Structure prediction request, 155 residues.
Amino acid sequence: MDKIHLILRGVLTIAISSHILYAKASSLTKAEQLVASKKKSDMTYKQMMQRMGESYKMIQTGVINQNKELVRLGASLIENHPAPKEKPWSIVKQKDTTAFKQTLLAYDKLLHQSAENIENNLKSEKSDWTSINKKVFELSNHCISCHAVWKNNLK
Ligand code: HEC
Prediction:
């Protein structure tokens, strides 16, 4: 009985650890694939973020001036942002590389979802400036929460 127990535990441990290794490896390649899927640019990561900031300001100006075209343009600049010239994870400490890769994957989805929500809201018949502003607020929450963890936690 004990022997069987031990064997089962061994098998289980191997299964769990290979699953963890597999999950880790696949999130790494996914992050690389994500970056490879974007247009390359000659911007540093910081300059790419400055572009994000300008795009976000464009959205805000559009909301205040009731100019849908400006909002649309800012959202599409965020949605189609290029990849920086260096690997994004080269800006974090070696020990944080995996965590930052996972962050990139998670926030890429959130930013795209938010930009899409803004674009869909602009198209909708029910669109009004208060509801557009709510979607813009949701977008800015994603920016802020990544900044809270990473902006001052680089190499
Ligand atoms: C995946 C995490 C992440 C997300 C999401 C993110 N940022 Fe950043 N952002 C950073 C990091 C890291 C820095 C610091 C870069 C540096 O100093 O090299 C930064 C810096 C900035 C800066 C300052 C640039 C400078 O000159 O110092 C601005 C502006 C900015 N981000 C705007 C935005 C906006 C707007 C959004 C949302 C649309 C956003 N960011 C989303 C990680 C993120």
